[in-house]
Amino acid sequence: MSNGLTITEKIFSRASGRPVRAGDFVMASIDRAMAHDITGPLAVEGFYEIMRDEKEKKVWDPEKIIILFDHQVPADSLNAARNHILLRKFAREQGIKHFYDLHEGICHQVMPEKGHVLPGQLIVGSDSHTCAYGALGAFGTGIGSTDMAAVFALGKLWFRVPESMRFEVNGKLGDRVYSKDIILKLIGDVGADGARYKACEYAGEAIRRLDVSQRMTISNMAIEMGGKAGIIEPDGKTEKYVRERSPGYRLDEGLKSDEDAEYAEVREYDVTGMPPQVACPHNVDNVVDIDKIEGKRIDQVFLGSCTNGRFEDLRIAAEVMDGRPVAKGVRMIVIPASHTEYMKALRAGLIEEFVSAGALVESPCCGPCMGGSFGLLGPGEVGLSTSNRNFRGRQGSPDALVYLCSPATAAASAVKGKIADPRSV
Ligand SMILES: CC(C)[C@H](C(=O)O)[C@@H](O)C(=O)O
Ligand code: SF4
């Protein structure tokens, strides 16, 4: 065995207070824990169950728990309203310092944006896309509500330190081809469980060249190939992003995988000349080049979600639309991922452009991404979405079809009224 460590092994060694390696079982201290309106109520219930015999029923650290509302926002059912009431009460009683009510946005956007994600941290969230925080060099991972209950109580959780799978992505992305196309390509290649329980590590010049917003898209979708995390080694861009939110933060030069670190697998890619990618129904790994699916009719385009609802995504889409209206017979729903992103888009005039084009712009939330709220697809309808999952029934009817793509492809398709290549509209 070599002496080198992966970034994941370094993070777990710090979090568990001893040198550990992939495969070791550890009890790790959690740096931040996030729960939202769907999974939070069950975690709260579990927490009180655990604390049943304690006199003081207090969480381990009210400053390290983040609670927010995003999935059913504004409350779209009585059940959602009750969940919101329960979590507001819990946050008040426990003195949860970082509680965001329903105006703030989607968890995976709000967490980094508000400075709750630092490189090298071990962060858990009761949401599967918590791997998104790997974009900043944190080990973020999704856990269930009952595990979250234990974290609320103890601030610790056991893990088997995952092996790492390295994706060396080189070459240069072409015009109107983005990080979403890279991650769809990788998932299509590896398969939905090809990286099961592995820490996916994205490296190479094509990844280094991406801005933080685009890195978030790639890290966000590690779970779609079974990854436990989706880490990108922090660099100057990471440092700048983090410092703007956590002044005084300094990049730790040692926070990267050693050259002789051991990997379960290393895969190499060259994205030069790669066309836009689309994931076809009903699996995220059912990925094709755009020319295989171009011309397919669509009923709805959804531009948003924690994967691709940032200001940069909206700007790309507006550029591609270039003042043209949404095609007749197609509806377009645009949802900025957070209040901050919404304000940026508003100030830049993007919201006016979308509204003038005939799109529906909604307040920050998950929206149709999970089909639990508004914007559902009916039987037989076809949706094109910038989100991360296209499972049967995910956005409404089990008889609807969902295709996944980049914001540029979504925008090109919205103006054309059918799936279109953003390079040729
Ligand atoms: C509701 C939540 C538990 C779920 C997740 O874990 O990812 C949702 O965010 C999703 O995208 O499917
Ligand atoms: S936007 Fe979609 S993927 Fe992201 S947290 Fe919400 S439901 Fe999950």
Automatic annotation (TrEMBL):
Pathway per its UniProt entry is: Amino-acid biosynthesis; L-leucine biosynthesis; L-leucine from 3-methyl-2-oxobutanoate: step 2/4
State how the cofactor is bound: Binds 1 [4Fe-4S] cluster per subunit.
Task: From the UniProt record, list the reaction(s) this protein catalyses.
Answer: (2R,3S)-3-isopropylmalate = (2S)-2-isopropylmalate
Q: Which UniProt keywords apply?
A: 4Fe-4S, Amino-acid biosynthesis, Branched-chain amino acid biosynthesis, Iron, Iron-sulfur, Leucine biosynthesis, Lyase, Metal-binding
Q: What is this protein called?
A: 3-isopropylmalate dehydratase large subunit
Xref: Pfam families: Aconitase (PF00330)
Q: Does the keyword 4Fe-4S apply?
A: yes
Which positions are annotated as binding [4Fe-4S] cluster?
C306, C366, C369
The protein's required cofactor(s) are namely: [4Fe-4S] cluster
Which Gene Ontology terms describe the biological processes this protein takes part in?
L-leucine biosynthetic process
Q: Which organism is it from?
A: Methanocella conradii (strain DSM 24694 / JCM 17849 / CGMCC 1.5162 / HZ254)
Task: Spell out the PANTHER family in the cross-references.
Answer: HOMOACONITASE, MITOCHONDRIAL-RELATED (PTHR43822), ISOPROPYLMALATE_CITRAMALATE ISOMERASE LARGE SUBUNIT (PTHR43822:SF22)
- What family does this belong to? Belongs to the aconitase/IPM isomerase family. LeuC type 2 subfamily.
Q: Where is the Aconitase/3-isopropylmalate dehydratase large subunit alpha/beta/alpha domain?
A: 26-417
